[in-house]
Amino acid sequence: MSRRQIHPVAVEPLNTLLAEKAVADSPFTVCELRDQLLEQPNLAVYGQKTLRLYVRDQINQRVEKGEVERVGLHPGFKQRDLFKVMGAVRVVDERRCVDSAQAYSDGEPLTTKLRRDSEQLRAQMEASHLQLQALQEIADKYPDARDKITSLFDQEKEQARALGEKLKAYAKVQQMLAEEGSDA
C-alpha cells in the first residue's frame, strides 16, 4: 500500500501524537511515532516499513515548515534523529476533520467519536495555550520585539478561542446525547 493511501487514515492519529509531544515538550524519533501508530488496529495493516516511511515524510515536511525541529541523535541509537515539535501543531483544518471523520469506523458509536475528538481538541488547546505563554515570555524578555510578536500572539489567541468554542459545541452535543440516553 502506498503512503498516499495511508494518509487519510493516519493523518489524524499522527497529528494527535504530535500534539501530545508538543504539550509534553518531549523529543521523539520517527520510529517511536511509527511504533505508537502500529498500536492502532486500523494502521497496523500497513506494516512497519510503510508507516515508518509515511511518518518520516510527514516529519520532514514539518521540519521544512518550521513546525518540527531536529534536536540531535537518540543516545541509544546513534543513527536515529531526535525531533521536537516547535509550537502548536495545527490539526484543526476543516478538510482534515472531514477526512478523519470519514476514516473512523462506521460501527463505532457517535459518543465514542465525539469523546475522542474532544480529547484531541483539548490537546490542541493545551498546545495553543503553551504557545501563547511562550510568545508572552518572548515579548517580556525582548521588549523591542513586542510589536513584531503581537500579530503572532493575536493569531494564536484567536486560534485558542476558536478551539474553545468548538470544544463547547462538542460538549453540548455529548450532553444532549447523554440526556437522551442515546449511544448513536
What share of the residues does DSSP label as strand, in percent? 5-15%
Mean pLDDT comes to 80
Quickly give the structural class: mainly alpha
Unreliable residue stretches: 89-105
Q: Which architecture of the largest domain does the CATH hierarchy give at level 2?
A: Orthogonal Bundle
User: For this structure, what is the CATH class of the largest domain?
Assistant: Mainly Alpha
Number of helices: 7
Q: How much helix is in the residues?
A: over 70%
Distance between the termini: 32 Å
Q: What form results from the Cα inertia axes?
A: flat
Question: Could you give a short account of the major beta sheet?
Answer: 2 strands, antiparallel
Radius of gyration: 18 Å
* CATH topology annotation of the largest domain: Arc Repressor Mutant, subunit A
Number of strands: 2
The order of strands across the largest sheet is 1-2
**Count of the separate structural domains:** 2
The helix-strand sequence is HHHHEEHHH
